[in-house]
Design brief:
This protein is of the alpha/beta class and about 270 residues long. It is built from 5 helices and 27 strands. Strand 26 and strand 27 form a beta hairpin.
């Protein structure tokens, strides 16, 4: 009874609506939807299919959440979209659920900002505290770690993995994996150094210095990438360096970087 639901909204029988939920005029809520407490849904938004939305999310007008995957193999299977708490989902965003071939779930964590026209394809997994600028487009099966920033108008190829605290510049085109703590840009996007601005907000100086040294060894030494990662893991106990090395060792799509001399990188303030 405490929820504010417009009489002009269409809510199918079976939908579960939490407390203090606001649903504006001309919205559509499917029978399989679950809307958590405190979530607000602006006018002309559609929540389709088996979609679970957590608490205190803000969904702006004309968002299309949970519509069927844009995958020709989809044949009406039981799939779902799961969205956590405290996300901001701006105008004209499009989020698709999973597919049978990808685990049947698209999963979004907490405290993320999705600016206007962002698209999340099927089977995407987003962690927490990420920012997706206007028009960022994620194909199917993309995974994004926590505190990542994706610039506007940036398409990301299917199956790409983006690590924690990574940053992708606007108008880039990303087709390979980006390790945690790193920055990439360009078409096709390649590594440009560490995401120092993001790291300084969350990680202490000693750990950043350890990452600088590891980055130089990995991407500036000219040695085989995975051999260098294994050696670094043997020589250090630093949590962040180990996480960076583990990502390098596990990458499936490869890491886009240009082999430059250390001197050039220092002049360009990349490390």
């Amino acid at each position: 009874m405490s929820s504010k639901i417009s009489p002009h909204a269409i809510i199918e029988d079976g939908a579960v609506i939490g407390k203090d939920v606001e649903i504006a005029a001309f919205c559509f809520i499917s029978s399989k939807a679950i809307i958590g407490d405190g979530t607000t849904i602006a006018h002309n938004t559609c929540i389709y299919g088996k979609t679970t939305i957590g608490k205190n999310n803000k969904i702006f007008s004309h968002a299309a959440i949970g519509s069927i995957p844009q995958d020709l193999k989809f044949n009406g299977e039981d799939v779902e979209l799961i969205i956590g708490d405290n996300n901001t989902i701006r105008e004209f965003t499009l989020f698709n659920p999973g597919t049978k071939g990808g685990g049947s779930k698209t999963i979004v964590g907490n405290n993320n900002l999705f600016m206007a026209y962002v698209h999340l394809g099927h089977d995407v997994i987003i962690a927490n505290n990420c920012i997706f600028a206007n028009g960022a487009t994620l194909a199917g099966h993309v995974e994004v770690g926590s505190f990542a920033v994706i610039g506007g108008m940036t398409p990301i190829h299917q199956f790409v993995n983006i690590g924690d605290y990574a940053m992708i510049g606007g108008a880039s085109a990303l087709s390979q994996d980006i390790p945690p703590y790193c920055m990439a840009e360009g078409n096709r996007a390649s590594l440009k150094g560490l995401n120092l601005t993001g790291l300084r907000r969350h990680i202490n100086r000693d750990d950043i210095n350890s990452l600088k040294s590891a980055y130089k060894d990995l991407f500036g030494s000219g040695h085989a990438l995975k051999d260098t990662a294994n050696k670094l893991k043997e020589d250090t106990s630093n949590l962040y360096v180990n996480k960076l090395c583990d990502f390098v060792l596990k990458t499936k799509r490869g890491i886009p970087f240009k082999r430059k001399s250390v001197e050039v990188k220092m002049k360009e303030n990349l490390i």
